[in-house]
Design goal:
It holds the Pfam family Glyoxalase_6. There is one protein chain. With 112 residues, the chain is of the alpha+beta class. It has one domain: Roll (2,3-Dihydroxybiphenyl 1,2-Dioxygenase, domain 1), CATH 3.10.180.10. Helices cover 19% and strands 46% of the residues. The protein contains two helices and eight strands, in the order βαββββαβββ. β6 and β7 form a beta hairpin.
Length: 112
């Protein structure tokens, strides 16, 4: 049976101190930049890719990829999870599980 949820290598943090945070990860830790835009920077760490996003601060969020974000969201809510934030245009959905862990569910690339 194919897995419905599969983790990506992405971990994201959001901070209003974006310039300081990105400078820290690039200069102090010396992480190579893998993505750069006005709102988001990605850093290659080896085991995962750390993304730093501008905005209201939240702690680290890891990601699960699914074939159908809406179906996964319904399944998780039915199992006692709560929606923290969602953006249908991405599409993505931050979910808090019954144990307090927040993670993103995003759309998996189509199978070849």
């Amino acid at each position: 049976m194919k897995k419905a949820f599969q983790s990506s290598r992405d971990v994201i943090i959001r901070t209003d101190a974006w310039a300081d945070a990105t400078r820290f990860y690039e200069s102090v830790l010396g992480l190579p930049v893998s993505h750069r835009s006005e709102e988001l920077m990605g850093f290659e760490t080896g085991a995962f890719c750390l993304y730093v996003e501008k905005g209201d601060e939240h702690g680290p969020v890891f990601e699960f990829l699914v074939p159908d974000v809406e179906a996964a969201k319904r399944r998780l809510v039915d199992a006692g999870c709560t929606i923290v934030e969602e953006n249908a245009s991405v599409p993505r959905c931050y979910i808090r599980d019954p144990y307090g862990v927040v993670f993103n569910i995003g759309r998996a690339p189509a199978a070849e």
